[in-house]
Amino acid sequence: MKSLQDLFNLDGQVALITGATRGIGLACAELLAAHGATVIISSRKADSCAAVAQSLTDKGYKAVPMACHLGEMADIEALWKQIEQQFGRLDILVNNGATNPHFGPIFDTDLSAFQKTVDVNIRGYFYMSSLGYKLMAKHGGGSIINVASVNGVIPGLYQGIYSITKAAVISMTKAFAKECAPAKVRVNAILPGATDTKFASALVNNDAIRNALLQHVPMNRIAQPSEMAGTVLYLASEASTYTTGACINVDGGYLVA
User: Fold this and answer.
1) For the purposes of burial, counting CB atoms within 10 Å of the CB of 156, is it exposed (0-12), middle (13-18) or buried (19 or more)?
2) Taken in order 164, 170, 175, 176, is the CA torsion positive or negative?
3) Which residues are the active-site residues?
4) Are strands 92-95 and 62-65 parallel, antiparallel or unpaired?
5) Taken in order 23, 99, 94, 231, is the CA torsion positive or negative?
6) Could you give the CA distance from residue 56 to residue 14 in angstroms, rounded to a whole number?
7) pLDDT tens string 65-108
8) Over 80: is that where the pLDDT of 155 sits?
9) Rounded CA gap, 106 and 119, in Å?
10) Distance of alpha carbon 29 from alpha carbon 43, whole angstroms
11) Averaged over 42-59, what is the pLDDT?
């Protein structure tokens, strides 16, 4: 156990963050890197990963790019092979990359949008967690952090299939936590509320939708991506060594309003 002042020190640790080139993923990458972790920047586009990794190394942090499409199993397998070859270990996995191609009535969700959302948000998280666990278990443990959503508890209007997949992520977090604990691999989740990201632009940039949503948020504002990163740092660090299976609301009070 580290001293109290060093609980959040991640020196020597390797962290993989998916969807790390913008929004919540980028904020998490910056904060974990600032606390000493070597951060693997992952998203679909190699050039975006390289640009973010370079921006972090320019600040004196440790970061490497590794592109991966979470909807493609071959990409996921290749990513983990590369991580094992380059680092031989992984200490922190932040499952953040997600998709939401359908914004509209749930009964109008076409098969391609349904399949894409399930493939990335459920199958992608599942196999990333499975492979992450296996590598972490070889080296004494680690921390898996799933970025779920308040929509997994209260389905968002016109976000039906997305909400269903995020409910699955919450259940997945608890199932993995129960079975991974003996190997000292902790599995937790954060449930962000409405956050000012490109991903959520259909909500936060629509005055009528945003104002209706804020009526149910006691803090009466939209979150910034950086406000999600602090909880991820806590779950990644030794400050949370007795925390597993937790699903932490980071939502301005939305789920208790």
Assistant:
1) buried
2) positive
3) 162
4) unpaired
5) positive
6) 15
7) 999 999 999 999 999 999 999 999 999 999 999 999 999 999 99
8) yes
9) 18
10) 12
11) 98
Compute CA distances 232 → 109, 145, 190, 240, whole Å.
32, 7, 7, 10
* Statement: the pTM of the whole predicted model exceeds 0.85: yes
Query: In one letter, which amino acid is 127?
Result: Y
For the segment 117-130, what is each residue's pLDDT rounded down to a tens digit? 999 999 999 999 99
d(CA 163, CA 167): 6
Single out the residue of 182, 176, 193 nearest to residue 248, CA to CA: 193
- Report yes or no: 47 and 32 within 8 Å, Cβ to Cβ: no
Model confidence over 200-242: pLDDT tens digits?
A: 677 777 778 788 889 999 999 999 999 999 999 999 999 999 9
Distance CA 224, CA 214 (A): 14
Residue entry with tokens 């990333």: 128
> Which residues make Cβ contacts (< 8 Å) with residue 255, sequence separation at least 6?
150, 153, 154, 191, 193, 249
Exposure string for 59-91, b = 16+ CB within 10 A, e = fewer: eebbbbbbbbbbbeeeebeebbeebeeebeebb
Q: How far apart are CA 165 and CA 118, in angstroms?
A: 6
